[in-house]
Amino acid sequence: MAAMLDIDMSTIGPATSTDTVPQWDSVRHMNLIIALEEAFGITVPDDEVATLTSYPIVRAMVEEQLAGG
Amino acid sequence: MSDSPESLLVELEQARSELSEVTRIVALLERSSDVQPTMTFGLSGNVTVDLLGTYLRKQALLHGHCAQIRTGDFGDHLGNMKRFAADGTDAVILLNLLDAFMPAFESRIALLGQDVVAAQVDRFRSELALTLSEAHGIKHVFVALVHRLSPPRPGSVADTVDAAVMTFNDAIREEVAGVDNVHLIDAGAISAQLGWSHAHDWRSYYRFRAPFTPAFLDRLAEQVFRLTRGFGSYYYKALVLDGDNTLWGGILGEDLADGIKLGPFGYPDSLYWQVQHDFLSLQRAGILLCLCSKNNSADVDEVLATHPHTVLRDEHFVTKRVNWDDKAANLESIAKELNIGLESIVFVDDSPFECEAIRSQLPMVKTLQVPARLSEYPQLVRQIQELFAVDIVHTEGPTKTEQYRLLALASQERRQHRTQDDYLASLELEVKVQRNDRASATRIAELTQKSNQFNVTTRRYTVSDINSLMDTGNADVYSVHVADKFGDSGLTGVVIVKYESPDVAVVDTFLLSCRVLGRGVELSFWSHVIDAARARNCRVLVAEYLPTAKNGQVSDFWDRLGLVFMKEDSTGRRSYKVDLSTAQITPRPEHVKVVNVS
Q1: Do B130 and B100 share a structural domain?
Q2: Quick one: pLDDT at residue B83?
């Protein structure tokens, strides 16, 4: 996630969101989704793509998908 | 895992197209202190192609370069090319998706009818010709052929989409013919290699207009480097071939000339016969063929002279080393005789022992081993063809190259009679300006939330913010609709003007969606804004530019519009004004028709 958003790994936390990361734009967002799917072997549901706007939400989605896998 | 550049490069190669790994390793390598950018790519597409930049940067690093990427405005090839040329960009990639020429184009092709498709081809052709005419200073321009996004259907042989693909690609071939800095890339072939569903990401296309998968873009970037021989990082000139089990099956010294496997029929005879033809084609294309074989030289001479099925004969080899000496010494002597560097040599041998010996003693030679599974040999041959980056053309009859040269003459003629003004006029651009249209508040708010690049102040508003601005009486919210003869782009621009003191109008917001950029739209409607301010007895119009990470392209917008620069503070914030009673702004471009519906 840090690589895709071009930020330092150590700064990722509950506050990491589209509001606090200026470079988190639509292009990086799609790349992030693709990278998450590759890395975790999951498929992000279509209607959740637009809602993944912060680290806690992304994390919850990944955990849910892995559990439901 | 060590983070030395060498081990990172190995990791990068092994990561293939995996996006997070490639992104991470590329960033690490580019940040290492001794790496300086050596080249710049400009990307221009009628779909979002930003991700291609990551894979070009990957390929650059693998070839000893370091690339910077400039992403052009969506769909504005001509404007992008002008900017790229002005910036000294080294290489430009033009990528068009058939389906994106008009909304849902592939689904509508049959419904639209041939005239509309022909008009679209014509528009595209003019745009491409003008774009290429701006590309003189650019070393390499890559033009991707269009291909279909929907998978081909085996049962549908007279498909209208395929017909349109062919028409567009004929237009591309004709326009690029004779332009010597242009390389064509067959994007459809990449899709076919990967398989349609592995090449395209429909979700990302519908949501973000980004139709290509990382795997597709990785291959595309690879092609860009192949076609330019790694942007000068290598240039193979000679192909040195072993004899036994490389040019024929069997061991000549044991099986004798009439016992070796070589001929049009049977296995493995036909396989060696086939690859000999491929090597002959390389020789015809100007590659220096050499033979390096551990045999008695008289035996090999006999095969080349008298074997009934040998394709390669003595005259095809520029030099031969048939002896019992060490192959490394032979390669060195070939390089010396031909006066080429060892790094210009590709060496092919079936023996793992010989290959390993050359790899360790002469690592600069590109050493390739004939696959143990012989049926994979033709794949290796294709890899060799790509290394030499030559087009294999047939030599009899009028060649494709010749046909394209003739077409090029016609095309150059057309180009001379076409100017950018004619082209722009033919688009029939119409800009519609509406003031305080409450029905559009939702779309206006959405644009203020989403637009990043062409946005001079990047102020974000909610729907209720927009509604109250429209209600106050102290502000005007303009919505800008753009249409051309091919269709309506809808509400794609917003201007918000606030009247803060009785005689000062302040431009609070100005943004345009990327898909209507270029073509002069952004300069076209300001007289309406100024007339409205004058009607309220404003004497001065004030505007500013607030820099962000993404809106660099509008840093000089107010200068272009003809406003007077006032000051710039330490954060890069720039202020402008214009005296409404006297001063003039840049006039509306003539090819844009502006309609005021407020």
Answers
A1: yes
A2: 93
User: Which of B431, B439, B491 has the alpha carbon at shortest distance from B470?
Assistant: B439
CB spacing of A27 vs B18 below 8 angstroms:
no
Q: Which DSSP letter does residue B546 get?
A: -
Shortest CA distance from B26: residue in chain A: A3
Do B74 and B206 lie in one domain? The reply is yes
In this structure, the answer to whether residues B131 and B56 fall within a common structural domain is yes
Residues B443 and B384 in one domain: no
Q: Which of B77, B171, B78, B157 is nearest to B120 (CA)?
A: B171
> Domain span at residue B143?
36-228
Task: Give the pLDDT band (50/70/90) at residue B121.
Answer: very high
pLDDT at B455: 94
In a domain, B436, yes or no: yes
| Inside any domain, residue B418 | no
Say yes or no: B209 and B249 in one domain: no
Q: How confident is the prediction for chain B on average, in pLDDT?
A: 89
Cβ B549–A22 below 8 Å, yes or no?
A: yes
C-beta atoms of A30 and B452 within 8 A: no
Among the partner residues A23, A27, A49, nearest to B549 by beta-carbon distance: A23
- CATH code (residue A50): 1.10.1200.10
Kindly report the pTM of this predicted structure: 0.75
In a domain, B326, yes or no: yes
Partner-chain contact B20 A6, CB within 8 Å = no
Domain count, chain A: 1
- Assess A47–B contact: CB distance below 8 Å, yes or no: no
CB contact under 8 A, B204 and A30: yes
Inspect the interface and report whether the beta carbons of B50 and A26 lie closer than 8 Å. Answer: no
- Residues B445 and B215: their CA atoms lie apart, in Å, by 36
Confidence tier at B409 by pLDDT (50, 70, 90): low
E strand segments, B137-264: 140-145, 182-186, 238-241
Q: Which of A33-42, B362-371, B424-433 has the largest mean confidence?
A: B362-371
pLDDT tens-digit readout, B138-160? 999 999 999 999 888 888 767 88
**Chain B residues within an 8 Å CB radius of A50:** 207
Determine, yes or no, domain membership for B405: no
Chain B residues near any Cβ of chain A (below 8 Å):
18-20, 23-24, 27, 48, 50-51, 54, 201, 203-204, 207-208, 210, 213-214, 450, 452, 548-550
pLDDT value of residue B400: 40
Count of Cβ atoms closer than 10 Å to residue B516 Cβ? 25
Q: How far does Cα B258 stand from its chain's mean position?
A: 51
What pLDDT shows up at residue A69?
54
> Residue B50's closest chain A neighbor by CA?
A27
Residue B411 has pLDDT above 70, yes or no: no
Q: Into how many domains does chain B fold?
A: 3
Q: Which domain holds residue A16?
A: 2-68
Q: Report the alpha-carbon distance of residue B255 to residue B245 in Å, rounded.
A: 12
Distance from CA of B145 to the nearest CA of A (A): 24
Reported as a single tens digit per residue, the pLDDT across B29-50 is 998 867 788 899 999 999 999 9
Contact across the interface for A27 and B50, Cβ inside 8 Å? yes
Q: How far is CA B536 from the centre of its chain?
A: 50
B300/B38 Cα distance (integer angstroms) = 47
From B27, B208, B548, residue closest to A6, measured CB to CB: B27
**Confidence at B393, pLDDT banded by 50, 70, 90:** very low
Assess A15–B contact: CB distance below 8 Å, yes or no: no
* pLDDT, tens only, B199-252: 999 888 988 889 999 999 999 999 999 988 888 888 898 999 999 999 999 999
Contact B207 A31 (CB under 8 A): no
Q: Would you call A34 and B452 a contact, using CB atoms and an 8 Å cutoff?
A: no
> Looking at the structure, do residues B168 and B258 belong to the same domain, yes or no?
no
**DSSP H or E segment with residue B335:** helix B327-338
Tell me whether the omega of the peptide bond preceding residue B211 falls within 30 degrees of 0, making it cis. no
Structure tokens at B514: 């990327």
**Do both B196 and B247 map to the same domain?**
no
